[in-house]
Amino acid sequence: MSGVRVFLLDDHEIVRRGIREMLEDSGDIEVVGEASTAAAALRRIPAARPDVAVLDARLPDGNGIEVCREIRSSQPAVGCLILTSYDDDDALFSAIMAGAAGYLLKQIRGNDLVGAIRTIAAGRSLLDPAVTQKVLARLRDEPIEDEQLAALGARERQILRLIAEGMTNRQIAACVHLSEKTVKNYVSAILGKLGLTSRTQAAVFAARLKA
Question: pTM of the full predicted structure?
Answer without folding.
Answer: 0.66
